[in-house]
Amino acid sequence: MQNLEQVNLEEVSAIASGNNVPRKNINRRKDDGEDCDKPEKVKVHISEQPFTKANWHKHINWMNTTIIAIIPFIGFCAAPFVRLSGKTALWAFVYYFITGLGITAGYHRLFAHRSYSATLPLRVFLALVGGGAGEGSIKWWSNGHRTHHRYTDTDKDPYNAKRGFMYSHMGWMIFLQNPKLKGRTDISDLIADPVVRIQHRHYLWVLLLMSFVFPTVVAGLGWGDWKGGFVYAGILRQFVVHQSTFCVNSLAHWIGDQPFDDRRTPRDHVLTAFATLGEGYHNFHHEFPSDYRNAIRWYQYDPTKLFIWTMKQLGLASNLQTFSQNAIEQGLVQQKQKKLDKWRARLNWGVPIEQLPVIEFDDFKDQSKGRDLVLISGIVHDVTDFVDKHPGGKALIKSAIGKDGTAVFNGGVYLHSNAAHNLLSTMRVAVIRGGMEVEVWKRAQAEKKDVNPVSDSVGDKILRAGEQATRVPEAGVSGRAA
């Protein structure tokens, strides 16, 4: 226990005022035997420190920067001095496609999301060509991607799109991030996978072999173009793969539609799909992440889906995961309804009936002497400003002033259109006590008494065409249709 002689009055005052008090190591002694009263230093991660001339280099993740920026820069500098042959150009494109599939079909859909099962030969192949894409090991990549799905658009998301396009595209890899701020996710299945463990342990060798040595050897032994194979099929091909797959983190969260959900940033766009070997239908993917498909329409571009399907036909893949069509259409309908609700909310549907004042029928008669009021289906409407605009003429609408015009409005004189009912709803000002002055309205309400009102996504009743409060479906009076 600390004795009273060791209590500092300044500390007591600080505690009383609610201020933080630095901890002191009172037990540690200097060489001369005196107490050491220096406060403990709290180490601040470099990512939380400002950039300065003295520390800017400490902010950089030099391993990632070397792979995704410095090496490509060297390749672009060398390209003007190395002839690009047609065979090398074709090989670079083919290998771009193969290593790209290593990420999309391998790292992403197989290892990160387990959207299908693969035989050992296919898993090894995807681990090798995925390593040739130069985007880290399966374990590292999948861990970050699962975290992204779990904490999308939050500070725990390693490539949070809300921090800017360039941050989500490349910045999160170039600059060091505080590991304590990153979200955690379960990768026990990856750790238990021997293919993943071996590739992770020897990733640097996999990277060098599959990114640079293999494409160079193919071009060199195949048609004698060693330099072209190294520069174009190796360095620059890897750069294109990087920029292509990085678009899944950036472009796929910035452009396109959100047909399934708009609470988060992922979007669907055909341009992103072409840039990412089919990963561009990202809104669908974030809603149904374990579906082996990214594009669900036959005409949508998704070569990764076709690759996985082909592997199944060859017996190399199985257990292809898909969400039910019912679940997919539920998402589509709900999002469309949400958009309709936003549109509906901008329109004037009139004062809700339950918010209208209740008056007696005699009050309605008296007030009709000072302004043009019409009673339809128990609801009082002020048509003063509409009398001169009435398509049927002043005489017809004037004849209903101060009277119950339910039967007349619903076919007695004219069976008014849906638009007329909607327009009339914007003119309502009150309801008659009981609201059942006309027998035909009583019958219409009795027929609907067991029908539950349909509500929108925020709980407001949806007013369907033909269900307006002033409409009487079975008025019992024949009339001319609108």
From TrEMBL:
Keywords in alphabetical order: Electron transport, Fatty acid biosynthesis, Fatty acid metabolism, Heme, Iron, Lipid biosynthesis, Lipid metabolism, Membrane, Metal-binding, Oxidoreductase, Transmembrane, Transmembrane helix, Transport
Name of the protein: Acyl-CoA desaturase
PROSITE patterns assigned to the protein according to its UniProt record, in alphabetical order: CYTOCHROME_B5_1, CYTOCHROME_B5_2, FATTY_ACID_DESATUR_1
GO MF entry, a single one: stearoyl-CoA 9-desaturase activity
Cofactor binding note of this UniProt entry: Expected to bind 2 Fe(2+) ions per subunit.
EC number: 1.14.19.1
Entry's family note: Belongs to the fatty acid desaturase type 1 family.
Biological processes annotated in GO: unsaturated fatty acid biosynthetic process
Domain of life per record: Eukaryota
Function per UniProt: Stearoyl-CoA desaturase that utilizes O(2) and electrons from reduced cytochrome b5 to introduce the first double bond into saturated fatty acyl-CoA substrates.
